[in-house]
Amino acid sequence: xxxxxxxxxxxxxLPAVGVxxxxxxxxxPQNYIxxxxxxxxxxxxxxxxxxxxxxxxxFNYILAPIIYFYGFNLSGLSKFIRNRLAQIVxxxxxxxxxxxxxxxxxPGDYTTKFLQDPKIRQNPEVYERMKQLFGVDDPWYVKxxxxxxxxxxxxxxxxxxxxxxxxxxxxxxxxxxxxxxxLASSVLSFLLGFDLGKRxxxxxxxxxxxxxxxxxxxxxxxxxxxxMLILIWLFAVTLRLFPLSGFITPTKWFDAPFSAQAVFIRLxxxxxxxxxxxxxxxVVAGRLKTIRAKRTAIWGFVIGGAIIAFVYWAANGMGTxxxxxxxHLALPVIALVTLHFAGDMLVMRDTMLEVIKEDYITTAxxxxxxxxxxxxxxxxxxxxxxxxxSFVIGLASTVxxxxxxxxxxxxxxxxxxxxEATTAQDTPLAIGCLVFxxxxxxxxxLVADILYAFLDPRxxx
Amino acid sequence: MVQTxxxxxxxxxxxxxxxxxxxxxxxALFRESKMGMFGLWVIIAFGIFGALSPIVLxxxxxxxxxxxxxxDNRVLSSKYITDFLxxxxxxxxxxxxxxQLWVYSFMDQGEDFRAxxxxxxxxxxxxxxxxxAPDSMRxxxxxxxxxxxxxxxxxxxxTSISELVDKGVIKVAAITSVRDVGNRDRFxxxxxxxxxxxxxxxxxxxxxxPYKDTDEFSRVLLWFRGLNRNNPELVAEFxxxxxxxxxxxxxxxxxEEVLEVARKIVDESSKGGQVNVSSNTQLMEIIATExxxxxxxxxxxxxxxxxxxxxxxxxxxxxxxALENSRFKDLIAIAESKLSNIDNPEILxxxxxxxxxxxxxxxxxxxxxxxxxxxxxxxxxxxxxxxMELAKISVDIGPEYRAKLEEKLAEVxxxxxxxxxxxxxxxxxxxxxxxxxxASLLGTKDVPGSYETLGSKxxxxxxxxxxxxxxxxxxxxxxxxxxxxxxxxxxxxxFRRMDIVEKLKNLQEPVEAVRFLIGExxxxxxxxxxxxxxxVRxxxxxxEWNNVKKxxxxxxxxxxxxxxxxxxxxxIEIFNTMSITNKIGIGHPLPPSRxxxxxxxxVGRDVxxxxxxxxxxxxVLGVLAALITVTVGTIIGTAxxxxxxxxxAIFMRIADLMxxxxxxxxxxxxxxxxxxxxxxxxxILGLLGGFGGITLVLKAQALTVKxxxxxxxxxxxxxxxxxxxxxxIIPNVMPLSFLYxxxxxxxxxxxEAVLSFFGLMKVRMSWGLMINTVWSSGYLGSGNIGAxxxxxxxxxxxxxxxxxxxxxxxxxxxxxxxxxLRKR
Lengths: 461, 824
Description:
- The complex is a heterodimer.
- In chain A, about 75% of the residues lie in helices and about 0% in strands.
- Chain A contains 18 helices and no strands.
- In chain A, helix 8 (about 165-200) runs antiparallel to helix 15 and helix 14 packs across helix 15 (about 370-410).
- By secondary structure, chain B is mainly α.
- Among the domains of chain B are: about 90-145, no CATH class; about 175-270; about 295-440, no CATH class; about 620-765, no CATH class.
- Chain B is about 70% helix and about 0% strand.
- In chain B, helix 10 runs parallel beside helix 12 (about 230-245).
- The longest helix of chain B is centred in the last third of the chain and has 37 residues, at about 605-645.
- At the A-B interface, helix 4, helix 9, helix 10, helix 15 and helix 16 of A face helix 31, helix 32, helix 36 and helix 38 of B.
C-alpha cells in the first residue's frame, strides 16, 4: 500500500462516505455502536494493529462491511441478505472451529504419519524437531489460534502427498472442477425435476406418471457407485460414446500452448455466463405479459448466450481442447443430473398433487383459464417453494456426494483430492479440502437462500 | 397396595389392548399400500437370506467358502482346463505331473546328477522352442527343486542340527583326522600356533606326512613357515620330514598325539560349531568321518517333533514324563525355549491344533509303512520317526554310505533302523515306480542312465502322458480346439509350445505311461530288485530287509478300459491335484457355476457367501443408526417444541449447522484418521442425523400436539413436564419418528457402503467392501466391466434393493401417518 491514491481512496474516502451515509440513515444509539465497531475493525486491519483484529486482518475485511450494515435500519430483501450474510460468516467460524476440534480429538497428529518411516523412527531427535516445527506439544488454544489465523490468512500449509505444492494452490486448482460439476448438475437436474414433476402430477394416474415415478424411485434409491458403473458400462464400454474416466486425453494436449486449467477456467466462466443469461431471461420474462412472449424472451437469451459463447470459443483457438474436456465431462454430468433430478421430480410431483386440491386452482379453472396457465402460473409457482426447500436442504449432501462421482470417473476435483489426502494421511490437505467443501456448501446456501427470498415474498417481509 | 397393583395392571392392559387395536387398524391400512408391502416382503427376504448365513457357513468347507480367507483352488470340470487356465498354467499342468515322476526316478543319483539334469532342461529349452524363451522350461527346474526329496529334507535337517550344535547338545568332533589341522574352517591360525606350543614340530611333520598333495597339507606348511620366519633351518627340517616317507606305526603314534592335543585346543576355543549337511557330499563326509555322532543325527531328526509333543503334553502330563525318561530328554529345554508362551490360551489353542494335525499325519505315514505306534510310547515313536527322516535325507548319498549309516543306526537302537529301512524301502518303491514310468515313456529300461544320451527327448516326452489323455478325452469336441488355441494364441512367446499343440493334434490314444499318473501303474520288479540289491550288498546284516514290502505285496489294480468320460474324469483329477498343491493356479475371478452360484472374486472367494454374510451386519448397522437418530431426534424435537425459548433456539441452530455439514466428506475424513467399525459408524451417523434435519420435522409435529387440549388437561391435573413429554407428546409423534427411522436406515446403509467402498471401514466383510476389492484389483477401471459383471452387480444390486426396500416401507408407512396421502 504505497500508492497514495489507493491510500486516499481506501483509508479516507471510502470510510468517510460510509460514515456520512450511516450517520444520515442511522437512528437508534446501537446503530452508532455498530458503526464504531465496524470502523475500528476496518482501520485495525488497514494499519495492521494486531489488537484490533480477530485471527487475521483479512477476516476483518469480511467482518467490517457486514457489521457496517447493522449501522442503520434496512428493510425487506436487503435486511434479509445482511442477516443471512452475518449468519453465514458466523457459521463459517463455527465450521472451521468444529473441523479443528475434530482433528484435535482424533488419535494421532500431523507427525504420526511420519512414524511409519523407518528413517525417522531410528532418529528420535529428527522426530522431536518435527514435532516442534508442527507445534504438536502446544496447548490446544495456541493450536486453535494458529489454525484460525492460518485459515483466514489462507495459509493452509504444504501438502504431504503432493509435496512441495501448497494446499491453497491445490485447492485453487481443484475447486473450479468441483464447482463446474456441481453447478451444471444441480441447475440442470433442478430444471428437469421441476418440469417433469409438474407435468406428471398434472396427468396423474396415467402410465407416464407411474413410469416416471418408478424411474424416479429407482434413481433415488440406487447405490450411486453402482449406478455410475452401469453408466460407464453402457456409455463408455458398450456404446463407446464417452471416455472411461479422467479429466483430459493427454495425447491430445502434447503440443497445447496453454494449460488445461486455463481452458477449464474459461469453460467455468462460460457456464456462469450462460447461467447469468438465463437468469436475465427469466427477469425480463417476468415483465412480459403473454406466455408466448415470456418463452421467447427466455429462449432468446439462452440461445443468444450460446451463440456468443460459441463465437468466443471458435475465435480463441482453444475450442478443440475445450471439446476434449467437455467430452470427459459429459458422463459425470449425465450421472449427476439423472441421479438428482429424480428426487426433485418426486418432491415436485408430491407438492403439485397437494396444490392441485387447493381452492384457488378450482377458482382458476372456473374462470376458464387455459390449462397450461393454471399449471404453470398458479400451481407450479406455489409448488416451487417446497422444491426449493428440499433443494437447499440437499445442498450439503450434493456437494459432499461429489466424492463418489469424482472417484468413479477419476475426475480430480475436491472430493477425489479429499479422499486421496485421507488415504495418504495427508492432514493439511485433508483439512483444507474439508474446510473448503464446507465453504462451498455455505456459499451455495447463501445463493440459494437469496434466490429463495426472491421467490417467496413471505421471507422478505 | 392390592388396589394400586390392580389398577396398574388394568391400565397396562388397556394400553396393550389399545396398542393391538391400533396395530390392527394400521396394518389394515398398510396392507393397502402396494409399495409398503413390497418393501416389507423384500426386507423379510433379506432377513431370511441373512439368517441363513450361519447355517450355510456351517455346512460348507471353510477353507473354500469362507467369505474372508476362503480360496477355491479346485479344478472341478473340464471347463476349468479349457477356459480358466492361463497358457502358462495349462503347460505346467500338462508337464509337471510327469516331471515329478521324472525327478523321482533319479532321486538316488546324487546332486551331481541332479545338476546335470538341470543342464539338460536348459539345453532342451533351445531344442524344443527353437528360440530364446527363458521361462518356457522354468517349471521343470522348479519341479526338480521341489520334488527332489533328499535335498529338500536336508534343508529342514540342517536347521535343526545347527540349532542343536549351537546349544551344545550335539558335540561335533571338528578334528577327525590330522588333515583337519590344516582346514581353516575348523582350525584357525591361532589354534595352530597353540598346537605347536604343545606338540613337537617333528611329531606334527610326521603326522601330516600321509596327506601330501592336499590343500590342508600345503596350508600347514604355509602356516609353519609363517610362524618360523626367523628360523629357516627349522622350516627346512619340517618340510623334509613332512615330505619324506615313514613307517606306518611311527606315523600312527604321531597322529594320535597330534589329534589329542588338537581336539583339546578346539574344545577350549569352542570352534568347529559348524555342521553342514545341505548337500549329499557333506552328509557323506559326516557319515564317513563320524564327526557328528549317530545319536546326534537321530536327535536332530527327532528335534522338530519335540515341540509338538511338548504342546500336546499340556493336555496329557504323561507325555512329558515319558519324554523326560527317554533318550531325547536333552532336547526338551531347547524345544521349550523356542516355544512361545503356550500358557496363554489364545496361543495354546491354535498351537494344539497344529501339533495334533502334524502328529496325526506322521502317525498315518507310519501306519502305511506298517508300524503300529502310539504317541504315548514317546521314545519308540520318536525313534521310528527319526529313522524315517534320516532315510529321507540319505537317499542320494550312495549305497555304501547308506549301508554304513544303517548299521550305525542299528548300534544305537533297533527301532531307528526299522524306521530307516521301512522309509528307505518306500522311497525305493517310489523310485522304482518312477523308473518304470520313465522306461515306459522312453521305451528303454536303462533309466536314469540313458537320460543324458537321450538329451532333450526326455524333456519333450514328459508332455506325452497328459497330452495324450487330454487329446483322447477332448477328441472331437470344441474343448480340444479351445486348448489348442489357448496355446497358439498365448500372449507370451515363452509359452507358445507348438510341440504340445502338435502332439494334441496327433496323439489319439492315451499312452501306457498315463496309468502311473492315475494310480493304475505296476512297478517293474526288476528295477526295484536292482535298487534293493545295490543297497543290501553293502550291509553286514541284511536281515532287516527280508520282510520289507515288495511290489508284489502291493495289490495290483484292475486296469480300466479307456473311455472318454473316464479319461476326462482322470484328467480333471490330475489338474485338480496340481492346483490343490499350488503347482498351477486357476484364473480367478470365475464366472457363476454349479459350485459358485455367483462366481468368485479376484481373490478366489465365493461372492454369494460374501453377500450372505454381509447381510446381518447391514441390518444391525441400519437399524442401530436409525434407532439412535430417532431417539435423539424425537427427544430433542419434542423438548424444543414443548419448552420453546432458549432450548428451542439452541437446538434449532445446531440442527441448521448439522444440515450444512457435508456428511460424506466428513465421514471420509473421520474414518481415514481413526479406525472405524460398524458400531462407531452407527453412533456417529445416529448423532449426526439425530441433531440434524429430523428434529425440525419432529418439532413441527410436536408443536401441533402441544396445543391440543389434553396437554393442558394433563398439566392442570399435575403432570410434570417430563411426564407430559413422554406420555402424551412422544406417543403422538411416534408414528412420524417411525417413518423417518425407515428413511434413516436407507441413509445409514448407504453411508456404510460408500465408506467401505472407499476402503475406509474396518469390517470383515460388507457389500461395499466387496465392490472395493474388485475396484482396487482393477477390474472396474478398464473396458471389461461387462465381462466381469458378477463382481459388482450382486453387491451393488443388494445395496440398491436393500435401501429401496426400506424406502418403500417408509412410503407405505407415510400413507398411514399422513392421511391426506391416502385419498388419491
